[in-house]
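DM from R.C. (forwarded with permission)

"hey, sorry to bug you on a friday — could you get me a structure for this? deadline for the figure draft is monday and I only need the backbone to look sensible"
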Amino acid sequence: MPTVQDLARLLEAAAPLAYQESYDNAGLQCGSPQAEITGVLITLDCTPAVVAEAVRRGCNVVVAHHPVIFRPLKRLTGANEVEQTIIAALKNDVAIYAAHTNLDNVRGGVNDKLAEKLGLLKTRVLAPQSGILARLSIYVPNRPEDQQADVAGRVLAALYAAGAGQIGQYSACSFQAEGTGTFTPGTGTQPAIGAQHQPETVSEKRLEVLLPLHRQAAVLRALRAAHPYEEVAYELIKLENVHQEVGAGMVGELPEALEPAAFRQLLKQQLLVPVVRHTAFEKPIKTVAICGGAGAFLISAARASGTDAYVTGDVKYHEFFGAEGQLMLCDVGHFESEQFTSEVFRDLLTAGFGRTFAVLIAETPTNPVQYDC
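My reply, with the result:
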């Protein structure tokens, strides 16, 4: 049977922990990584009632979007709901796993699902992250006359398998250039080419690939395992380039422009919300920026992107002024903008584990906000 650790590996392959914000606490919250999974209950927030539902429905893992342990715990006395949740989980051997801002910041995550619900097309990341890519340059022997010695091909295949060579939706990306390498093997070496103390000149290829920094260790292990040289020469340089597929928020286009009132009606219908708080805006809505959860920090980015509307949650009174009349700023609520995250988890777990165990969406209501319309 798959274990909690297997579940963590699967979710972190889709939403690496390296992509969570610095203030966040995604990952395994409590429970044994070695525990075999009997069933998974998916929820936006984990509460004592959710843990009770997991036990009742035969699930020993709860997967939540929001971490129940967000700030450091100093004691476990049951004094508040967070402590009560952890105590209930530990008593009943229920593991709790959270994928939060790391799931916000990847394609296929929270914002892709929100874009899907709104029918947005041609989507792209609104605020891509920078400083999370590196360029790896390596040198391999070049023997074009020997078809069995395609060292470059073997090394590149190993690097791709370890997570290098991806640019947007393009895979197996590399650059190659031919040149001449020189070296002199020292005492005690076992050179793949040449002999000890004899200067050597070799035709080589320079290979370059991009990689996400969180895959650095795995890529370098793959390089050393696949490379024929005893001492592998390489350069690893951190880049300031933005990662086009990683970052906060998303921008997309509606199939056809809608009048502002019609767009707000679309939000109500698709997001199941009775109320949309919004700024005044008279122009048709075609390009839409979105951010699930508390997204006021992206108002200026949405405005700069030239979108007609920005949809998010948790916008404060003074933050509405940030629209500056250039877009319609819509607050649909925190829960409402993230409620379909459960479908993201369900699809990932079902695709990864099939019918090995039950994957259930929680029935326990967790939204603390009520509307009296």
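R.C.: lifesaver. The radius of gyration is 25 Å.
me: no worries. Residues 100 and 251 are 20 Å apart (CA to CA).
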